[in-house]
Amino acid sequence: MIAEIICVGTELLLGDILNSNAQFLAQELARLGIAHYYQTVVG
User: What pLDDT does residue 24 have?
Assistant: First the structure.
């Protein structure tokens, strides 16, 4: 199984905040043995 993380928020696109949710999700996916190759941010 392959997963993609999609995050939504203008503040993420502008770099106003760190995308810590994507980091957490990537770690959890790895722990579960699910490959994740892409992270996408949309506003």
Answer: 96
pLDDT tens string 1-43? 899 999 999 999 998 999 999 999 999 999 999 999 999 999 8
Q: Which residues contact 1 (CB under 8 A, 6 or more apart)?
A: 34, 35
Q: Among 25, 23, 19, which Cα is nearest to 42's?
A: 19
Range of the domain at 35: 2-42
Residue 32 near residue 17 (C-beta atoms within 8 A) = no
CB neighbour class for 19 (10 Å; exposed up to 12, middle 13-18, buried from 19): middle
pTM equals 0.77
Q: Into how many domains does the chain fold?
A: 1
